[in-house]
Amino acid sequence: TIAPFNFDVENTNWSAIGVTDQASFQSFMMSTFTNMSSIIASDFSIVNNGAIKCNIVCTPSGSTHNINWASKGITKFNSLSGLSMATYLVASTNNITEMAAFEPLVNLIAIELQGNPITAFKGLNTCINLIHIDVHDCAIATIASMPALTQVDSLEISGNLITTAQWDNLNPWAIAVVPGGQISTLLNTNPITTSITNTTLSGKGWTII
Question: pTM higher than 0.70, yes or no?
Fold first, then answer.
């Protein structure tokens, strides 16, 4: 199903971060999305579950467009297609449980989701320009294969609930990824050292922590 809005983000208390209407939302976006000359929202609403739904037009300036939504009380992303020019997304320490709606963010080079109660590592395969992913200290117990992310050279995934079988789900990615990167895997249910993925990454000169 195609979302009817190009921005749909849930937060149970937008007013706590100063967002109460269209004007304050546009101000919030301008303050958290770098190198934008203007951001205009239309068809704006804040619905009962705390979701802001609108169609957003972002006019960029410069070449890097970083979103900083750390500790903003966000609970779910439903549509982010209006933000497709974003190059860096920080949404750490929120209340996000699902990695969803990232497919349009094809220009991302880095994403930080650490400190969220995310249970599954997935949903990034269209973000083929990613080089840095941080999902440490979440609640990840399942991993989907991500072989398209061949440019990633930094993966922070320590402090989760990953078993050997789930580490092995990363092996198709490990085979395809660039050599010489670094992965942080400490404090999971099982160590990565017992997995096929560990063998593959070690053979490609990755630093495994």
Answer: yes
